[in-house]
Amino acid sequence: MNLRCIFIPLIALGFAGCVAQDSTVSSSSEAAPASSVTTTSSSPTSSSQASSSSLTPPVSSSSAAAISSSSMASGEKTMVMAINVGAREAATYNGIEYGRDQFGSGGTQNSTPDPIANTDEDSLFQSERYGEAMSYSIPVTNATYTVVLHFVEMYQTANAMRTFDVSIEDQTVLSALDIHDAAGHDTAYSYTAENLAVSDGKLSITLTARNDNATLSGFAIYSSDGGQFVEPVIDSSAVCPASEPCRILPFGDSITDGVPATGAGGYRAPLFELAVNAGKSITFVGGNQNGPATIAGQPFPQNHQGHSGWTVAQINDLIPSPAFDGSPHIVLLHIGTNDMWNGPNGLEGRLESLDDILNEAPNALVAVASIIPWQDHAARIASYNQAIPGIVQAQVDAGFKVIFVDQFQGFPSQELADGIHPNAAGYERMGQKWFDAIESYLP
């Protein structure tokens, strides 16, 4: 049987993930889903589907996103959440809005402009997340759920070129799925698994490749016994490990680099000193190095990912490598100053790096700062900064660990060395604000 994936866009800040890969499902493996799970497929009938006697009759191909024709019509199941996998924007399918990609881990985002067969609404099936191993963990109340999975084979053009397994709540619902065999190339395919009991507050979907990569384009979750989505709350104990220093990635332009006095370490030096004096254990990661040798009697971690003169677009090119080679637990993001030469228009596109960061490090805490004042472009910076809290909130609503840090408010002009970059007092101020924002997450 084939699964259909929907790519969910990460809000305007720009993390998204999608995967498209080939997969083949044998009739024997599909005929033996977990005994406690009721399954239904929807796509043009293949030989493997026809022989799967344990499956309930397939839903009509035009209703791939529905749970079943009878249950949806009777209103027995209520919508909990729907995700457009691998996409940064929402998509509507069969009257249901699938939100941007979130709650996922692993895999790579991908999309295709190709028209999709077996549906009149292509957008949900034109994005994917693919990879050898990937998963979704959706915060929900303990209840019984139905999950509709959406797939498309947008890459492989023959059977048996891509096969993978899908498990929901540790129960295998699809074994050796071959989307091409079940539906064909660039053809929508959906699969429904019912009677999925959640007892730990998270509905888990896991995809594991057999041949080539696993892929998913979207999914919808329903409940018949009152199950609900739970708004995520950042667990401070889940950000940094207690057994090792918390890895922090200072990420941005010349202000992260520490210009004009890079040897002093910019805001990183006072931030590190505050952490040491508070008994916190941190280190910095990134591909660049500068700063003092020691601070507060401790070796100073000189790593960072600050690049003088760089715009948001240039910063985006560092994701995933080398920026995330150090697997940061916390990302400090202060970018956009150099973009003010051209004004704040197109903010969402410029800040797509946030989506990329969240896709690359979905479990990291990302602290997004408003940029500090620049006397020559005060109006542009005010407009740019005004939009950032809403972008951050959208990511929070999507389930990511993102916080807003107001580096602009209260920053006096006398703490600018040249009208753009902080002097020593300005960097002290920035270091204090960063520390205040992340202190509760540090071991």
TrEMBL record:
UniProt keyword list: Signal
Region annotated Disordered, chain positions = 27-59
Q: Which domain of life is it from?
A: Bacteria
Where do the SGNH hydrolase-type esterase domain residues begin and end?
A: 251-429
Which segment of the chain is annotated as a signal peptide? 1-20
Q: Which PANTHER family match?
A: SGNH HYDROLASE-TYPE ESTERASE DOMAIN-CONTAINING PROTEIN, THIOESTERASE 1/PROTEASE 1/LYSOPHOSPHOLIPASE L1
Task: Give every Malectin domain span.
Answer: 80-214
Q: What is this protein called?
A: Uncharacterized protein
Question: A Pfam family name for this chain?
Answer: Malectin
**Entry GO MF terms:** phosphatidylcholine lysophospholipase activity
